[in-house]
Specification:
Elements lengths: L1 H14 L2 H11 L4 E5 L2 E5 L8 H15 L8 H17 L16 E4 L10 E4 L3 E5 L5 E8 L15 H13 L3 H11 L14 E5 L5 E9 L4 E8 L2 E9 L6 E7 L5 E8 L4 E11 L4 E12 L11 E10 L2 E3 L5 E6 L1 E10 L11 H11 L5 H16 L3 E5 L13 H6 L8 H17 L25 E2 L3 H5 L1 H5 L7 H22 L9 E2 L11 H4 L4 H16 L2 H21 L1 E3 L2 E3 L3 E2 L12 E2 L3 H22 L6 H19 L47 H14 L5 H13 L3 H11 L31 H14 E5 L8 E5 L9 E9 L3 E8 L2 E9 L3 E7 L7 E6 L4 E8 L5 E4 L2
Parallel strand pairs: 27-31
Antiparallel strand pairs: 1-2, 3-8, 4-5, 5-6, 6-7, 7-12, 8-9, 9-10, 10-11, 11-18, 12-17, 13-14, 14-15, 15-18, 16-17, 19-28, 20-21, 22-23, 24-25, 26-27, 28-29, 29-30, 30-34, 31-33, 32-33
Helix pairs in contact: 1-4, 3-4, 5-6, 10-22, 13-15, 13-16, 15-16, 15-17, 16-17, 17-18, 20-21, 20-22, 21-22
The chain binds alpha-L-fucopyranose.
Alpha-L-fucopyranose (FUC) binds next to loops.
Amino acid sequence: MFIVFAKVIKKMKKEINRELIKPIIRKIVYNSVVSIDEGRQYVNLSHNFQGNLEFRRNFSIFVPLFYSIQLKQNQKQKMLKQFLLLTFMCAVLPFGKDKTCRADNTNSLLWYDKPASVWLEAMPLGNSKLGAMVFGKTDVEEIQLNEETFWSGGPHNNNSTSSIYYLNEVRSLIFQGKEKQAEDLINKEFIKGPHGMRFLTLGSLKLDFGHKDAKNYRRELNLNNAVSTVSYTANGVKYVRETFASLEDGVIVMRIKASGKGKLNFTLDHECKLKSSKSSERLRFMTSRMKGNYGMLKAVIEGVEQEGIKSALNAELAAKVLADGNITTDNNKVDVKNATTATIIITAATNFVNYHDVSGNASEKNKATLKAIEDKTADQLLKRHIAKYQEQYNRVALDISANTQHPSPNTQLPTDQRLDKFYGSDDMGMVALMFNFGRYLLISSSQQGGQAANLQGVWNDKMMAPWDSKYTININAEMNYWPAEICGLTEAAEPLFSMIKDLSVTGAETARKMYGCRGWVAHHNTDIWRVAGPIDGAFWGMFPNGGAWLTTHIWEHYLYTLDKDFLREYYPILKGAADFYLDYMVERDGELLVVPSVSPEHGGVGKQSPVCAGCTMDNQIVRDALTQAIRATEIMLQDTALADKDKAEMNATLLAFNAALKKIPAMKVGKYGQLQEWREDIDDPKDEHRHISHLYGLYPSNQISPFLTPDLFKAAGVTLNQRGDQATGWSLGWKTNFWARMLDGNHAFTIISNMLRLLPDENKMREYPNGRTFPNLFDAHPPFQIDGNFGVTAGIAEMLMQSQLSPNAKDLSPEIFLLPALPDAWKNGSISGFKARGGYTVNITWKDGKLKSANIMPKESGKLILRTKTPISQGNLVKTYQDLGVYEYEINVTGGKAVVITAS
Ligand code: FUC
């Protein structure tokens, strides 16, 4: 089949004519959207086509191919016949007989055969600014909405003004072993509230179609183009609804089409549990190309007060309804009658400008958003959205399969059933789907100029979101961004950087007021108002490392991109995080200790309180904060235009940071062979706590490595085994990365298998105690928390490629490891577009569990240390780690010139 097809393609390359193919596609695919955008061809066949599923999948691959190929007129009939025949054959041949025909859509498509009955079955759409959950109902459709800046409260801070007077007493109590008393004092004098504001919902748009008896139902979310489609037949009419959250234009668009003329009738309404008012009106529009009427539904939703912080935000939601039928707007609703097609354009905004300015105007923002696109057709909006989305999404590709000859039959099931059957199956496409979904979620919830993805990304329907849907920065918010750099979604991380910038300002006040320290600090939590003080109680909140941990993302961004302008811009923030520690740490027996602190949400055996001094995670984060600040300072010093005064200041900084670094306590191995979580050997070997904070040094940091610190590496393995293979969703995400760094692919895969277990809904936890993924593939803590999605996405990448910079390396020469943790179950596959530290782009293919080839593109010239588990034909073999089965090569690379690697 493949050979026949390849031959035809070869022939067609010479002969196909675009003009010929275009009408054919149009004819075959009822109402499909075919567009060409500056040389980029794509086809969206996801709606209005009632064919065999496989046909659609295969067809969507072939059409762009054919479409971009030039044909001569005189060959057209013959070629056309071959084209249709081949496409048909692909559709009817059993899946897997021919890999070429097996489009990889099963790795990028979520689909269901019934509407969502609960929120966690609905399809998430987003463009960072707006989040939407589309239920796909036939009777009354629901689109639940969020706007990223709609939070409770208003500008404020939560810095205690009394803590500074009790700091010494707290420290002295801790050093006397009276941690409980220290905790009580912290709770009384350090943590005064408020404890963070919450992320609010805009409520839902409801579209009453009244289609109670729908047949041939299908809904899907296509990760290849970020479009969700619902189709069904009611009363003999086929209805198709296609929804996307435009990344380019900042709106949500729903296009609705009926197969029968004038058969589309619906009423649009808004419902919200928050206090809101709504209005609707019928307006006239006139553009250069069209004129007519449209309906506008508006809702103004009031923010809420929380913990005495008055609400400073209001949101306005606006839905513009265009239709080719009658539009009326009675009772604050929009009514569409006797139409065939309709388009709803949704926008929302608040008066939020930034964390200390709420002087914006939601209504003006919405007007401007709608005005900017008033000339654009729905087709154009779709085309612009897909182009922007694919520019990011298509940077990376992952293919993994257990068996290319006989793919799992599970691939044919609706996604919830496929997920339910994953455990123990060989459906490795499900893993790829989860990986792609993670990338999709990051693109959809975090874009330049927007807010960082919170605990639920940008999707929350609850009045009281779990943990307020804030930013928990003792692991969760950081985890959200673990896939960003390695998956080439570097600009998706920009909202995180801008949040860190804000925190470096609010956190400087916190450092000064609460502790009398220079630099800046943030504790275990923050929100849209960028509160930096401790919250909830010492058990959680007395964690002065949240800000510094966040800054590692800035340094990492530099390592991945080598962008010196970025580093220059953020240098003061890196330095400020390190400066804080110089003042906050206390010297004890020649060691510098972070005190007071906690190893997140966890205490040791025999302790009544987790409050402590210099726990392992403190030391690891301080070590990173100081090391990255030192390296950044060294890079800044290379600037020949630096004034003498600045140079002198930077040299003094280097001296101070280097001196402090020498006094940071080393990691210790405890009595069970475990890595100690605290300075004292008080770990409980039976403890299965979800936070494994002391392994921060293994991942995301690189202070524990099989090559540089084999004893600590072994101890980390002992700790991981003690903690077990079950956990909350995000903890499983972390464990996937841990086991990848332990170079144990099979164990990492066990963790992924534990994560990919269906939990039908939050209230089914009893029946499904092991459920960690909801039907719509949202991660289950439970409840829903998006960090697990991002954690496992990063973990899958980390199993296939790792890059590190040796903490000891003077130069920043990177170490790239190809296939460090490939599980037996992932026999064959490939990755492309993965980014590695040091400015590298990496493609890898493997076969029968072994590296086959790789293509490594360096940005700059230098020396690369390359590790593999299979001997290769290139580079100088400098070391073999017998016990690990690892080969280490040194390769000199030239910037912009790909290094091709082949297994020897
Ligand atoms: C931390 C975790 C919890 C939860 C919360 C949002 O406090 O310990 O499990 O993820 O953040």
